[in-house]
Amino acid sequence: MKSKVGTFFTENLSYKIVSLFIALILWVTILGRRDFTLAKNLEVEFFVAQNQTLISQSTDHIKVKVSGPRTALRKFIDSGVSQLVSVDLSGKPEGTYSVEIPLNRIDVPFGVKVLSIKPNQIQVQVGKKE
User: Fold this and answer.
1) What is the phi/psi pair of residue 111, to 5°?
2) Nearest CA to 103 among 59, 58, 75, 66?
3) Are 115 and 40 in contact (CB under 8 A)?
4) Domain ranges in the chain?
5) Are 52 and 126 in contact (CB under 8 A)?
6) Alpha-carbon distance 60 to 50, whole Å?
7) pLDDT tens for residues 75-113?
8) Half-sphere exposure of residue 126: CA atoms within 13 angstroms, side-chain side
9) Range list of H helices, the chain
10) pTM of the complete model
11) Total Cβ atoms within 10 A of residue 114
12) pLDDT digits over 8-67, tens only?
């Protein structure tokens, strides 16, 4: 009986050692992968019809909080061009609106998810062009 147990551990020993190292490397890699959180300010741009003008808006920047792996967040930060969130108001008549910025309007790299947008609503006033 002892010889069967002994041969079980010593048979193909090199394959077992290599398998153990691969398992350890995978385990450390998966355990070490954490999602990081980051906040970034983005500009908001409103488009109105040609015969209209944007009279006022409560803010022209929003603060976006995102989460994801460090490499994906680095792509999000290093995207040299300052990101713009465009909102089309050209189909709306004159008046005051509370425009909500949806989470899916923020362009993020694969693996990054948008956690929050502050403020998530912007007050705008659209009037006739003179």
Assistant:
1) 95, -10
2) 66
3) no
4) 1-33, 34-128
5) yes
6) 20
7) 888 775 557 788 888 888 888 888 888 888 788 888 888
8) 20
9) 2-10, 13-32, 70-78
10) 0.64
11) 17
12) 777 888 888 999 999 998 887 776 667 788 888 888 888 888 888 888 888 888 999 989
Positive or negative torsion for Cα 67, 68, 69, 72: negative
Cα distance between residue 51 and residue 75, in whole Å: 39
Residues in the chain: 130
What CATH code would you report for 34-128? 2.170.120.30
Q: Look up residue 91 and give its two tokens.
A: 């189909």
Assigned token pair, 2: 């002892």
User: Mean pLDDT across the chain, nearest whole number?
Assistant: 83
Q: What's the rounded Cα separation, in Å, for the pair 103 and 86? A: 13
Asked if residue 119 lies in contact with residue 85, where contact means CB atoms within 8 angstroms, the answer is no
In the block, which residue shows the tokens 């920047």? 61
For residue range 63-76, what is the model confidence (pLDDT) as tens digits? 999 898 888 888 88
**Euclidean distance between the first and final Cα of the chain, in Å?**
98
For residue 83, give the 3-state DSSP assignment.
coil
